[in-house]
UniProtKB/TrEMBL annotation:
Name of the featured protein: Metal-dependent hydrolase
InterPro entries in the record: UTP_pyrophosphatase-like (IPR053136), YgjP-like_metallopeptidase (IPR002725)
Pfam family, one: YgjP-like
Domain YgjP-like metallopeptidase: residue ranges: 41-234
Organism: Phreatobacter cathodiphilus
Keywords from the UniProt entry: Hydrolase
GO molecular function: hydrolase activity
Amino acid sequence: MSIIRRLFQREPDPSAITVSHEGVPYAVELRRLPQARRFTLRVRAASRDAVLSMPARAKLADAVGFAERHGAWIATRLNRIPEALGFAEGAVVPLRGVPHTVVHCPGRRGTCWVEDGAILVAGDAAFLSRRVQDFLKREARKDLEAATRLYAERLGVKVTRIGIRDQASRWGSASSSGAINYSWRLILAPPFVLDYLAAHEVAHLREMNHSPRFWRIVRDLCPGMEAAKAWLRANGANLHRYGAP
């Protein structure tokens, strides 16, 4: 590399910076995006941190200054995120939108099941949290596969694979190959919310965009779309509080 190129080469950005507000530090991840035209901040409930997106050619010092000027905003949004709640004995966890209490039953046979408004967990206490989460993932897969197949049949599209993940930034995603991925946390929401997300992702197999035509397809599949979107705006971040160790 020539000396001139070396002089003008930009140092790599740090992956994150720390912004302090009233003496409390907050982590802010940095992302350069080719399509970005300005600095934007957002808060992630799942990882309890903030992300600063910046134009590709923006100066790092300007990005840091922008984040520091918005330290109060970052602190306020992060402090609004509800306390994490693990799957421990006595924890109250929503299943299909209905609160259920986690009850440890060490003397019972089996793994995990629902009975009289409770999620009962057999076996050693050391495996309780994992067994509850595995149970919720199985329930999510069952409901999401049923809803996805139903909407795919109505729309006449082919789903090649359904994956259940713990996606921090989106509730679902679809590829042009017919593969659809969902967050298992949708099983915590009321059924009409899960149904809407299934309709949304299946509609992407017809329209890989968010055009007016796409939204017409979603609305035809799921007339209760607006209510589900409103529920997610109001309560979606809260679903990420469950399952902390």
